[in-house]
């Protein structure tokens, strides 16, 4: 995550005794960030409003690290608080959040795999019925009750997959 790397690089530059603008300029050069950070680099280099530039370049999704860094910068400039300590805390919080997301994703791997396996079981049932000499495909597509069973079964299978995806997505977002 680029925000974590930026916080680490900025913290290291500040610990080396550089001014805030110079430290941010060097940290931006050390970290691979997307092209829209040019206004941020210019604001850091020229003494502009770095907090506003950080908010401007923060993406809508996944930009909370840059927004936190903007808040730290604003507090440091307005109150005179030490930026190094604030940036360290933001970096620690971002690393903890990333570790939490990884842990949640790992814990959701089992339920997701189970849902996919359960979704494939009806196809296995059809293969087993065919293996026993029955004609499940003929029943499903050749009669009204069979077609009704097929439609209801596919709908329930799709609903189960959708529901599992929805629950796991909400768990990851929390």
Notes on the structure:
The protein has 174 residues and is mainly alpha-helical. It has two domains: 2-96, no CATH class; 105-173. The chain is 83% helix and 0% strand. Helix 2 (20-30) runs antiparallel to helix 3 (38-46). The model has no long low-confidence stretch (mean pLDDT 88).
Question: Could you give a short description of this structure?
Answer:
This protein has 174 residues and is an all-alpha fold. It has helices spanning 2-15, 20-30, 38-46, 50-57, 64-79, 83-131, 136-142, 144-173.
For the sheet with most strands, the description reads: none
Helix-and-strand structural type: mainly alpha
Q: N-to-C SSE series?
A: HHHHHHHH
Beta fraction: under 5%
Relative helix content: over 70%
Considering the chains and any ligands shown, give keywords for the structure.
2 domains, 174 residues, mainly alpha
Topology:
Blueprint: H1 2-15, H2 20-30, H3 38-46, H4 50-57, H5 64-79, H6 83-131, H7 136-142, H8 144-173
Helix pairs in contact: 1-2, 1-6, 2-3, 3-4, 4-5, 5-6, 6-8, 7-8
